[in-house]
Amino acid sequence: QVQLVESGGALVQPGGSLRLSCAASGGTLAYYASGWFRQAPGKEREEVSCISSSGGSTNYADSVKGRFTISRDDAGNTLYLQMNSLKPEDTAVYYCATKLTCGTRVRSWGQGTQVTVSS
User: Collapsing DSSP states into helix, strand and coil, what is residue 112?
Assistant: First the structure.
């Protein structure tokens, strides 16, 4: 099973940018679809974005469309989430995950990284 470790979370001001990373080991990330989820305090975990195993297809939650970009470095076996124009409502713990396809259930979770957007 693929092990996932997120990094890059931080405290950032509204309007700022962050790039989250998710390093995979024990398997090849490109064999799976992979995605980013987030969970804010008191709320359910929600899917933010997903990229297909081929890398040719991506999707985004409406709340982040146009601001966030998912990408994958196959040579480095790493998933990324570039987050721009951050808003306080983006504050959450962000998790990366693998799936068979973007429409199926999660197979592996990372431990999460905290993103706080506040002035």
Answer: coil
Question: pLDDT (tens digit, 9 = 90+) per residue, 10-64?
Answer: 999 999 999 999 999 999 999 999 999 999 999 999 999 999 999 999 999 999 9
Q: Which two tokens stand for residue 33?
A: 């679809």
Residue 55 region by backbone torsions, left for phi larger than 0, else alpha for psi between -120 and 50, else beta: left
For residue 33, give the nearest of 15, 55, 13 by alpha carbon: 55
CA distance 41 to 21: 22
Separation of alpha carbons 99 and 107, rounded Å: 5
- β-pair partners for 108: 98
Residue 74: count of CB within 10 angstroms of its CB: 10
Report the pLDDT averaged over residues 85-103.
96
